[in-house]
Amino acid sequence: MTIVEIKTKIYDDQKPGTSGLRKSVKVFQQEHYTENFIQAIFTALEDQITGSTLVVGGDGRYYGKEAVQKIIRIAAANGVRKLIVGQHGILSTPAVSNLIRKYKTLGGIVLTASHNPGGPNADFGIKFNCDNGGPAPDHMTNKIFNITKSLTSYKIIPELNVNIDIIQTNEIKLDNTFTVDVIDSVNDYVILMKEIFNFPIIKELLQERKFELLVDCLNGVTGPYAKCIFGKELGLNDTNIVHSIPLEDFGGLHPDPNLTYAKDLVETVRNGTYDMGVAFDGDGDRNMIIGKKALFVTPSDSLAILAANLNVIPYFKKNGIKGYARSMPTAAAVDQVAKLNNIECFEVPTGWKYFGNLMDAGRLSICGEESFGTGSDHIREKDGIWACLAWLNVIAELKKSIEEIQKDHWLKFGRNFFTRYDYENCELEKANKVMTEVETKILDPAFKGTKLCDGTKNYVVKHADNYSYTDLIDKSVATKQGLRILFEDGSRIIFRLSGTGSSGATIRLYIEAYETDQNILYNDAQEVLKPLINIALNLSKMQEHTNRDKPTVIT
Ligand code: G1P
Ligand code: ZN
């Protein structure tokens, strides 16, 4: 087998977004396209690549297996010593993060477009994670992008093919031995979960106390993990774990665990006797938690409630609680817990990569995003199954329903009402108009102190900016992370453009209000937030600029 150097052509669109390079499958299938990006990752790793070990796997979506073979061929040609590959190319994003940390590898390549639909006409993605198990930080993704812009060739062993469907160690004789270790996708992750949580008490909850749980894997990667953990380990009936075979096109589902795309689960729980429903996204890092009759727990509340109850989970009993964090648009419910418990709390830009440094520095134990991401410092990715187990562990210890736990929480800490409006697939030009409209208005120095009104409600602007963040640990700066309007009473309006889409533009509008008044505490969020929503829509001239009279998704 010989290494060949293939002359390539440059693609100028390989800039990684919020979470890796995400494009339609058709884009990745262009000649040299995937190869270029993989070579750029290896080139960016410089000398470290020689003799290194990397983890490779993905969410099982269409084109994943082909991409794994390309990675194998290019890795061998670039001097990588060993690849640890999930069987069938399957590894959830949290599982990759765990394997990188457990086996102390140089990093990993995750083949996923997360919650974006899959199939020949849908999306694919490639993401590089560093040796701490977390998504590559901006300086690394920028470096990779810069390399793609001047790449002239890539190194590959074209005839190398490894069977990734059989668990075995493949040793390929090159100058040195190149090893492809095809491993069970689930084992190491299950071991980790059993170290973190009190499995016996969760088992008792599900079996003896007959707590009814319904798990929906949305045909994504979590199926095998869920069957092993909730089924085999905790005794949940097979029939309570649905859509549990990873499919290349997710069976046509949009594998995003929210009220819109996981509506099967929501309807089944609403009409049934279930105590809890949970759904995960395509690559297993997101989660949605609902209680009896489909009572919705916002991800911001979910984070805060778990943060307030971490003391019942063995992992945190042992390691202590170092700090909390949330992404900027996430409602500040966890901040209230931090205040009362006197624990450090951080706000970072959107994207999991910003939590990593704080965790590595021992300052952060649990964090989350409003976009259905919750996780802790057990790995460096958000973790859907972890979040579900954390809830089960808390419920089992508190011996209360999700509704009671949520109500008690609001009574003690107040409630951060929150909603997000997504305007998906807008033309970029129209989306930019909305952003410019808002930016021009709010950055005007006179904007501070103005009173914005809707009906009888009015809000005084305390501060407005385009959010920028300086990393506490490495002092790197991320600018233009979202347009923020902060009001005197703690309410917030935020506008951001999505960084994970594969085409067009998605405008995200985030609205939040904090209430402690018991007469309002249990009201409907859309109702409570209506005045702020109206203010945001008027200020941005949303309808005029986008021709949309309503968002695609309301959360
Ligand atoms: C979205 C979410 C963000 C999350 C990311 C990856 O990014 O908003 O919180 O980290 O997906 O799952 P966005 O499309 O908003 O850039
Ligand atoms: Zn995901």
Number of helices: 18
**Based on DSSP secondary structure assignment, what is the total number of beta strands?**
26
- Read across the widest sheet, the strand sequence of neighbours is 2-6-5-3-4-9-8
Percent helix, as a range, is 25-40%
Distance between the termini: 53 Å
Q: What small molecules accompany the polymer chains?
A: 1-O-phosphono-alpha-D-glucopyranose, zinc ion
Largest sheet: 7 strands, mixed
Arithmetic mean of pLDDT: 96
- Strand fraction: 15-25%
Please state the CA-atom Rg, rounded to the nearest Å. Answer: 23 Å
Structural write-up:
The chain is α/β, with parallel strands linked by helices and about 550 residues long. It has 18 helices and 26 strands. The protein has a 7-stranded mixed beta sheet, with helices on both faces. A 7-stranded antiparallel beta sheet has the order 19-20-23-24-25-18-26. It has a 4-stranded mixed beta sheet with strand order 11-10-12-13, sandwiched between helices. Helix 2 (about 35-45) crosses helix 5, helix 7 (about 200-205) crosses helix 14 and helix 10 (about 300-310) runs parallel beside helix 12 (about 335-340). The protein is globular and about 75 Å long. The mean pLDDT is about 95. 1-O-phosphono-alpha-D-glucopyranose (G1P) binds near residues 327, 350, 498, 500 and 508.
